[in-house]
Amino acid sequence: MTDWSTIKDLPTTRLEQLFADDPERLAKFSLDVAGIHFDLSKTHLTREAVAAFEALARQMDLAGKREAMFGGAHVNVTEDRPVEHTAERGEGKAESLKRAADYHARMRMLIDAIEAEAFGPVRHVLHVGIGGSALGPNLLVDALGRDSERYDVAIVSNVDGVALEDVFDRFDPSATLLVVASKTFTTTETMMNADSAIGWMQENGVEDPYGRVIALTASPEQAIEWGVDETRVLPFSEGVGGRYSLWSSIGFPAAIKLGWDQFAELLEGAAEMDRHFRLSALHENAPALAAFADLYYTQVRGCETRAPFAYDERLRLLPSYLQQLEMESNGKGVTVDGQPVGRPTAPITWGGVGTDAQHAVFQLLHQGTHLVPVEFLAVIEAGDTLAEEHHRQLLLNAFAQGAALMKGRANPDDPARAYPGDRPSSTILLDVLDARTLGALIAFYEHRVFVNGVLLGINSFDQFGVELGKEMAKAAAKGGGDFDPSTADLIRRAGLE
Ligand SMILES: O=P(O)(O)OC[C@H]1O[C@H](O)[C@H](O)[C@@H](O)[C@@H]1O
């Protein structure tokens, strides 16, 4: 009988001791999947801990739930629908695969038409969307599109007009396509930005601005009602959650920026990770092992945060992408049965870019009172063409930080200069950064979130927590809302009554 108490009772041996005790430790806790090396040996996972988590996974029927997800069962119980993002990359129920393939074919045809100048010469693509309808595409375009001379793509999410005006200043309205990305096609910020972009085109002499709009949505009827012609609506399935949607038509800005072949590679890389996740035993399964480490730190060591650091400029948006994926998925307080979950759920994901972060927040990681599991992400092949020393410095810094966090340094004479050490990190090292490895990497994170959710007994696929604030903002915008004295005063002071 294994449960959380067994996991909580595991010995807490120091990391350096774990290495000393087991010469095979590195081999046991590192693995290679889809061009990515995962090194979890500098976490406190042990064979014993993994066995305890495997037993918990059996109790929670992780294998059954994993197959239920891939098989199209309604694993998103609160919304009574399937979870279909893996079908976008070819892993799932036949019916979902067919639908995803049809939608991709439609998307590809539209991209071909744009390339063939069916909309006249297009140079600029203005994508408006927010949350899952922006973070994923933004990550892809920023990570992979730097050297592409194809379209100039801007992704605007913030309702703050400053964001949109920045783009208006540099885009030519008559050479711009407007892409409106919203699963629901009702999100206030996105619809406001879309309306303003239409206004900007109109004011600048574009005759039929709605004729230059492409909608990416799971609610085609809403898009048509708003004014988009059916032929330019690129649908995706309701079962694809917003934060899991970059594989669907929501990935349009990436597909147009990188070209279809690259987009297909992204999907293939993700499919390779899907197969690994589906078929590998848990003790050699990258998403499962990473989730076990996550749970070890939140449940046993009381860690409240975790911090991925991208030691690669091209991955600078990954931490913010992961914030939505992890916190919106697993930041929950009740189980799938609606009972209080009774234990910490998702840690707070924060992080940043190396080496910048070393000169700002690493002080706390080395000497602060919070234990923060760190994740280093790096790429062996450089993304730049400058002297090799740049990339060498970058990688060596990532690796040295992991070593220093673990090793620490005693200083009995001067406590302010002592480093406690025994601070955990994992390292994710990509051979190269391309569409295929990035696809595999993102899929790795998705499945890691899934394993965390199943072992905690929560539904990772709803996000009701975001609704209340939206409702209250809507009520306030209509001049209503029953606000507390502080909020009412703020509204008054800002002249918003
Ligand atoms: O794609 P949309 O329907 O416009 O939704 C955009 C975003 O808004 C919501 O508030 C959710 O929290 C996100 O999960 C979602 O990605």
Automatic annotation (TrEMBL):
Q: Identify this protein by name.
A: Glucose-6-phosphate isomerase
Role this protein plays: Catalyzes the reversible isomerization of glucose-6-phosphate to fructose-6-phosphate.
- The active site of this protein is located at E328, H359, K470
Q: What is its EC number?
A: 5.3.1.9
What reaction gets catalysed by this protein?
alpha-D-glucose 6-phosphate = beta-D-fructose 6-phosphate
* A molecular function GO annotation: carbohydrate derivative binding
**Alphabetically, which GO biological process terms does the record hold?**
gluconeogenesis; glucose 6-phosphate metabolic process; glycolytic process
The Gene Ontology CC terms held by the record are: cytosol
The record's comment on protein family reads: Belongs to the GPI family.
Lineage, please?
Answer: Bacteria, Pseudomonadati, Pseudomonadota, Alphaproteobacteria, Sphingomonadales
Query: In which pathway does this enzyme or protein participate?
Result: Carbohydrate biosynthesis; gluconeogenesis; Carbohydrate degradation; glycolysis; D-glyceraldehyde 3-phosphate and glycerone phosphate from D-glucose: step 2/4
- Where would you find this protein in the cell? Cytoplasm
Entry keyword set = Cytoplasm, Gluconeogenesis, Glycolysis, Isomerase
Extract the PROSITE patterns matched here.
P_GLUCOSE_ISOMERASE_1, P_GLUCOSE_ISOMERASE_2, P_GLUCOSE_ISOMERASE_3
